[in-house]
Amino acid sequence: MINILIIIILVIIIIIASIMVIPFHITLNLGNRDMDFKGYYKITWLKIKILKREIPSEEEKEEEKVEKKVKAEWTFDRIIRVFNLFLESMPYFENIIYAFLRSITLERFSLDFNLGLDSPVDTAEIAGVFWSVLPMVNLIPKVSINMRPVFMKTTFEGNIYFELKIKLLWIVVESLKAITKKPVRNLINEVRA
Q1: pTM (predicted TM-score)
Q2: For residue 174, with 0-12 CB atoms within 10 Å meaning exposed, 13-18 middle and 19 or more buried, which class applies?
Q3: pLDDT in tens, 39-69
Q4: What is the extent of the structural domain holding 78?
């Protein structure tokens, strides 16, 4: 009986450790044509699809029709109180942000868009700024950004695609450290109220 319990505990520890150490892959593919956004995002772990959602989803369309419930009102005093608590908690959030940045690895980023402003002169100026900066940005491995000016109409349309992988270990560790601090707990309680 004790051996089975030890084996179950070891299996649970191994599963939790593997979830924390083996990275999750996040993919976003989004296109915009005439302010109509379509695409998808997905999350995979060990090439197992955990989540995939279309943009816009049918649920989002239905939620727009349903009225949202009103939560506790945010008064000016409450906003000031939350802001002060946020400032007190900021050193602990910095550690979480640094852990988050260390845990993310960019696999691929691609942006391809058309831009047209009201004036062809403004469009040409913006295109010149983009074209002067883009060669340096495109030197970054795994990054590709293309911009095409459209002089005859006002438009902003294009496609964005990115893949990144994220390991949860250090984010979870820093989050647990932060939750043990009183200012962070006070902030969470005030926001939840």
Answers
A1: 0.72
A2: buried
A3: 999 999 988 999 999 988 766 656 655 555 5
A4: 2-65+74-192
